[in-house]
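User: Quick sanity check before I run a bigger batch. Here is a single chain. Can you write out its predicted 3D structure?
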Amino acid sequence: MLTIKEVTEITGIAASTLRYYEKEGLLPHVERNENGKRLYDKEDLSWIHFVTALRATGMPIAQIQNYVYLYKEGDSTISERKLMMLNHKKEIEKSIKELYFNLDKINYKLALYDVLESQIERTSIKI
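Assistant: Done. Predicted structure follows.
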């Protein structure tokens, strides 16, 4: 079992964020010792990484809460959870597509600047 300090060192996630995730019900299994200190196991670390990935890809807290609720309901919700992940995956893919589209525009502009700079360098060198 790991303390919150050890988990922050392993994951790089602030203790306040971990407490917030737990308070919001995003970490379903965090135990506490007799003094009330949080204790994390490997499954908790997996949940932390999963929730972090969902947050980093734009999933709202409320949607993650719903996912955790469904998870706690058991195997009868697997299809619904899968659908949630498929829909989120589609949103991520859409965002990636938009990023690549915009990256192409930036790369085009950079290539244009390369051409302009090379023209300036050729015309300004006179012997």
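The mean pLDDT is 93.

User: Great, the batch can go ahead then.
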